[in-house]
Design a protein that fits this description.
This protein is an alpha/beta fold. Among the domains are: 163 residues, 3-Layer(bba) Sandwich (FAD/NAD(P)-binding domain), CATH 3.50.50; 123 residues, FAD/NAD(P)-binding domain (3-Layer(bba) Sandwich), CATH 3.50.50.60. 28% of the residues lie in helices and 21% in strands. The protein is built from eleven helices and 23 strands. The strands form seven sheets. The protein has a six-stranded mixed sheet with strand order 5-2-1-9-20-19, with helices on one face. Strands 13-12-11-17-14 form a five-stranded parallel sheet. The longest helix has 26 residues. The protein starts with 14 loop residues before the first strand and ends with a helix. 43% of the residues are buried. It binds flavin-adenine dinucleotide. GO terms for molecular function: electron-transferring-flavoprotein dehydrogenase activity; flavin adenine dinucleotide binding. InterPro entries: FAD/NAD-bd_sf, FAD/NAD-binding_dom. This is FAD/NAD(P)-binding domain-containing protein. Belongs to the FAD-dependent oxidoreductase family. Keywords: FAD, Flavoprotein, Oxidoreductase.
């Protein structure tokens, strides 16, 4: 005769995994964990859509891109339970949302990326976000001129897109450093500047946009003169900004009424985690992790993507790679817990062997900066070359479709 079924209390408890942030790292992680089975996965994000953020510079000149690059969570492959809400605080065992809800967990993964409010958007739904991106395009078309603030990869790409798709629109790039693309080999900056100036762009180095001198009677606006897109905290597309005068700190006059496009450094969106994680959150906001992507001093919490301290470029394909390693490690730890619940202690096998992430996937540092639709800069290690290669390899439409195939149930 068969023995009676074991009482429910002796069954291994399903571990609860909370994935905070449904961007590249978080969406891939939740999908991977859900596919493994045996875990209660919850994915939480402040907005109910996944966005291919690096398509946004193209969407600014070609808004139809957002029909594919903004993806509702309901379109994603199975990813556990989705909760829409902003995580405002964390303890070692639960996350609290802005509306007071609590999300308990056994394992958590902080995948909140960086806070560049406007480029990412905070709309309440897919339709609203697409409207926001279309409004940004309309503001760009209507603006008499454009000032791109920041001469890193995003600023250079933005200027290139506008000069190519809206020829004749005056564009000024204002950069605080001595050369464009200053994190890439020296030649990259010279190549970018050469292309931009050859296409009529004014490039101002070692300078910043100054507070505007408002003409008498002008309505109070933001800190700076023109309307803007990408400015932290603004969150919406800006208009042309009227006729307020803009200038730089070194006294250069900027085109009146120019639309400001903010392409300046983003900070990791990890403030909510700092009290719980203490010294594991650095002054730069990055969460310190080991090669296994476990947070220093908090082995049941992981940090991935742009939010973590792995020394490598902050790129989408690397965030996606982190998700694979974290999924494997969380599943292994949860399986060991379940074995211990069953009284076997994992068969005496001890702590599970965890996978390690190789910074940059062990490849030489590679950066592709597209400038316009058929030219760009390819930087590998200390070498940079200009030409068609970057734009061929980094096809925005191609990346959007590749991402959809990876995350969507019906791409
Ligand atoms: C304008 C721009 C251009 C870029 N260009 C490129 C490029 O050309 N190539 C490339 O590979 N990479 C590019 N990147 C970088 C790439 O997009 C990031 O490396 C990638 O998105 C990082 O993924 P992530 O999952 O860490 O963060 P994200 O994809 O940013 O996702 C973070 C998620 O967390 C959510 N979130 C944040 N805080 C909270 C909270 N408190 N509560 C709930 N949810 C929260 C956000 O809503 C978001 O959905 C670009 C980024 C930007 C902003």
């Amino acid at each position: 005769m068969l023995p009676p079924p074991a009482p429910p209390s002796s069954l291994p408890r399903r571990r609860r995994v909370l994935v905070i942030g449904a961007g590249f790292a978080g969406a891939h992680l939740a999908i991977d964990l859900a596919a493994r089975g045996g875990l209660d996965v919850t994915l939480v994000d402040r907005k109910p859509y996944f966005e291919v953020v690096f398509a946004n510079a193209r969407a600014l000149v070609e808004p139809a891109v957002c029909e594919r690059s903004v993806i509702g969570v309901e379109e994603l492959k199975p990813h556990g339970t989705f909760v829409c809400g902003e995580v405002v605080s964390l303890t070692d065992r639960e996350a609290a949302l802005a509306d007071g809800r609590k999300l308990p967990f056994d394992y958590a993964a902080v995948c909140t990326g960086s806070a560049q409010a406007l480029w990412k958007g905070d709309a309440r739904g897919v339709g609203e976000r697409r409207e926001e991106l279309r409004a940004q395009h309309a503001a760009l078309r209507a603006a008499p001129a454009v000032v791109v603030v920041g001469g890193g990869p995003l600023g250079v790409e933005l200027a290139g897109e506008i000069l190519t798709d809206l020829p004749g629109k005056p564009v000024v790039v204002v950069h605080s450093g001595p050369r464009l693309l200053q994190d890439l080999p020296c030649r990259a900056g010279a190549l970018a500047r050469g292309w931009l100036e050859a296409h009529g762009c004014k490039v101002l180095l070692n300078d910043r946009v100054a507070a505007a001198a408002e003409p008498p009677g002008a309505a109070k606006g933001g800190e700076h003169g023109g309307g803007g897109i990408g400015q932290d905290g603004d969150g919406k597309s800006g208009g042309g900004g009227g006729a307020r005068a803009l200038r730089t700190e070194r006294g250069e006059e900027l085109p009146a009424g120019a639309l400001l496009l903010w392409a300046v450094g983003a900070r990791p969106a990890t403030g909510f985690a700092a009290p719980a994680l203490g010294g594991a959150v650095g002054e730069d906001g990055l969460i310190k992790v080991s090669g296994t992507l476990q947070v220093e001093g908090h082995p049941h919490i992981f940090a991935l993507g742009d939010a973590c301290s792995i020394p490598e470029s902050k790129l989408a394909f690397l965030a996606t790679g982190h998700a694979g390693v974290a999924a494997r490690n969380i599943a292994a730890l949860a399986a060991a817990d379940a074995a211990a619940d069953g009284g076997g202690g994992g068969g005496g096998a001890g702590a599970p062997q965890l996978a390690e992430w190789r910074p940059g996937m062990g490849l030489p540092r590679l950066m592709l900066v597209t400038v316009g639709r058929s030219w760009g800069i390819t930087a590998i290690g200390s070498v940079a070359v200009g030409g068609w290669l970057a734009s061929r390899v980094k096809s925005i439409a191609g990346f959007v479709e590749k991402t959809r195939r990876a995350v969507c149930a019906a791409p």
